[in-house]
Amino acid sequence: MINFSNSKSTLYLLIIFNLMVLLGQVWPAGAPPFARWVNIFFLIANAGFLISILVKSSKGDAKE
Question: Taking Cα atoms as reference points, which of 23, 21, 22, 27 lies closest to residue 40?
């Protein structure tokens, strides 16, 4: 699986993809031809990022 860290670059990338997905929902005629793949990648990347946060937080809880 993709290694997601809580770095600012990962967050910036997810924000950019989120804005592209939102723009495609608000203005479908202006969506680029690769919008479907951006949507799919964004969903996978977002899920991976959230799972990595959950895994890291559960490891932190176990150490306490």
Answer: 21
Cβ atoms of residues 41 and 13 within 8 Å: no
For the chain, the domains span: 8-57
Per-residue HEC secondary structure of the chain comes to CCCCCCCHHHHHHHHHHHHHHHHHHHCHHHCCCCHHHHHHHHHHHHHHHHHHHHHHHHHHHHHC
pLDDT for 48-62, tens place per residue?
888 888 888 777 665
